[in-house]
């Protein structure tokens, strides 16, 4: 893995083995971005104590984490007990994981960090950019994609040891990425309704614009690329049934949307946004609003493998539904930092 020195503040490392909305602030718009990553496996083991001094951190059985402002990193291994700390000085805008050991976090100033032990220790990777990275996603332990400001786009085929930048097909800020590794499909979305698409695992790219779409803030795709959903800052949700080639508007609300999440089997989807907005997708692509009890701006969403739904946002807010959005409860993380990204593998 890449361990090039960071031009910014160093990433925190524990005593464990030393291995290795994405939404800009806008005047009059919801500020910040939520990045929350949910379980990368079944959540069956208790939250571990600090890594043992011999460096042999036990592998977690089910890993869920959140990242946010001032390098905030929160995690749980049982879905109940959370620990929160800072792993960087920079704001972290996105986080993703594969299995229960490999994870990546990305954020301001081109920061990309990698863990190989379930979040105990982190090491910097060189993504060859100083632009803010707004979204990062891995489809396997080796194949990954990141995107950010000023059309920043990069692909890795070796777990981030080497990131290859893509000649920017756009100067627009890119806020969300998704990939279906087995199908070779990669997508990046951003301002002006732009959709960048690769059908060969990032070797070549095409650019298109969704007519009528606002600035696209988030995109989600199932592992087989059967369904793609994208949410925009104008309050619309767009869907594609042909792996991101064409989109139609499926829902519209008066609230700005920042994130969209899709269950792996396409059975459910949620979109989150300003003033506590959460939309639930039912059968046939029908969307309805649900009430969470919070009015803070929600900037991230995820649907875990067991069907649990999470949404996160301002002031460290994290809410959970275990019944398909019928009711929500608050998860206390012990932080007031804005949460900036959400993901479930």
Notes on the structure:
By secondary structure, this protein is an all-beta fold. Helix content is 0%, strand content 39%. The two termini are 21 Å apart. A hairpin with a 7-residue loop joins strand 27 and strand 28. The strands form seven sheets. The chain has a five-stranded mixed sheet, with no helix packed on it.
Q: Please give the oligomerization state of what you see.
A: single chain
| Total helical segments | 0
Mean pLDDT: 84
Using the CA coordinates, give the radius of gyration: 18 Å
Helix content: under 10%
Number of strands: 29
Placed side by side, the strands forming the largest sheet appear as 4-3-2-1-29
Major sheet details: 5 strands, mixed
Distance between the termini: 21 Å
- Taking pLDDT < 50 over at least 5 consecutive residues as the criterion, the unreliable ranges are 1-34, 41-57
Beta fraction: 35-45%
Task: Tell me, briefly, the overall form.
Answer: globular
Class derived from helix and strand content: mainly beta
Query: Helix-strand pattern, N to C?
Result: EEEEEEEEEEEEEEEEEEEEEEEEEEEEE
What are its keywords?
single chain, 345 residues, mainly beta, five-stranded mixed β-sheet, 0% helix, globular
Outline the secondary-structure elements.
Elements: E1 35-37, E2 64-67, E3 72-76, E4 82-86, E5 92-98, E6 102-107, E7 112-115, E8 123-124, E9 133-138, E10 144-148, E11 153-156, E12 164-165, E13 174-180, E14 185-190, E15 194-198, E16 206-209, E17 216-221, E18 228-232, E19 236-240, E20 248-252, E21 257-262, E22 269-273, E23 278-281, E24 287-290, E25 298-303, E26 309-313, E27 318-321, E28 329-330, E29 341-343
Parallel strand pairs: 1-29
Antiparallel strand pairs: 1-2, 2-3, 3-4, 5-6, 6-7, 7-8, 9-10, 10-11, 11-12, 13-14, 14-15, 15-16, 17-18, 18-19, 19-20, 21-22, 22-23, 23-24, 25-26, 26-27, 27-28
